[in-house]
Amino acid sequence: MRARGIGNYPFPNDDEGTYLAQAWAVRHGALAHYTYWYDHPPFGWTQLAALSWLPSWLLPDLPTFVQGRMAMLPVAGMTCVLVYVVGRRLGLVRPAAAGAVLLYALSPLAVVLHRQIYLDNFAVLWALAAFAFALSPRRHLWHHVSAGVAFALAVLSKETIAVLLPVLLVTLWQGSHPSTRKFSFAGFGSGFVLTGLFYPLYALLKGELWPGPGHVSLLGTLKFQLGGREGSGSPFTAGTDAHRLFADWLARDPYLLVGGAAAAVLALAVRGLRPAALAVLVLALVALRPGGYLPQMYIVQVLPFLALTLAGLVQAGTARLPGGPRLRLTAGVAAAAAVAAIAGPHWYQQDRSAVTADDNGVYRDASRWLRETPVGDRDQVRVVTDGVLWLDAVDAGYRPGTGVIWHYKLDQDPAVTRTLPHGWKDIDYVVSTPALRGERENLPTLRDLFAHGRPVATFGEGGGRIDILRIDGGR
């Protein structure tokens, strides 16, 4: 289900292209395709670099974002395995743990978001590995050290997952033996700190830990991420970005979100399920805070814990029924059938749309235009693209960085602006996508390019179309 139609739906997000281009840069000896400014720790797209080379080698004619999405399939598969392992270590019997995997894997939110090239998918994989190690029934010290290492790798994949650290410590408390607990916590702390320190150490050795003139910095970017970004508003206020995002999540899968959240509140009373329930509640509180920035892919971090909590609570409820094992088994089967009857039709409709829709023909056509249309010496032609098509242009022979320019860098990166002494006049083409049109009022050079651009090719229609603009009055 994940693979079918993976290049056709959903419509590409500019972040997908950014992470894929950064993975390309890693394979070419750099941390990013432009100046690395510590926007996220680089371990996420380093993993993407290790996974994406094979699809790009086997299927070079596909648009690059499709190649990148194919690289996310093993990540989704491994995450499902870890959901099962964590479920078993939380005390779920095999059918309940398998049920948690099905709840997780079949959720329309997961079907869509696991296809996309998001760092959160890597972070969740490592976070679940950390929980699995912390709950290891053998309670070996190296398991708890490994839990610290795995959680550090989760944070180095996507830093927002760090809010689960208190939950993981509670989990480690439950999973460790009282007589050796202090050693377990020392081992966990050593693994977490020593692994996580590689990131600030890199910045320190580069002279980019502290803010200062003429260079990027880790702490400066962290300050921006925490307080400089425009907030998404309150989820409880109609018209805000956060409210629209919650409405979209609930429209796609109200059953796992509402059912899992309600189960998390009740599951706090069940000691074995408390780690998963606490994870749901902590992540929900972060999402519901007023004024914070809430990204579209944030829900990826919550989904496995929602599934584990809901499946675990069903098991806990049936286990308390009077009668013998046969009656409790019958009750469990009935509960599973009820969930399937309630959520199944909606999930089927949503998942079927995800695997049969084709929203991305315009990107395939634009990628083909970049690869096949004669425009002169591509090493000298300068074209502006969004993040999704940047790597397609590079593969087509345009010069990386300053020959094919990611639109976001036009007025944001001094290394790019120095190469544009005449501003918009130094550009030959613009690949006008919805992402570019949405930013043109915020970027002066991009606004000038649209004012002087003449369409030479158009793919699709309406707001989702892509236009190839030739810049009149340019070089």
TrEMBL record:
Keywords: Cell membrane, Glycosyltransferase, Membrane, Transferase, Transmembrane, Transmembrane helix. Coiled coil: none annotated. The keyword Glycosyltransferase applies. Signal peptide: none annotated. It is a multi-pass membrane protein. InterPro entries: LipidA_mod_glycosyltrf_83, RgtA/B/C-like. The keyword Membrane applies. This is Glycosyltransferase RgtA/B/C/D-like domain-containing protein. It comes from Streptomyces glaucus.
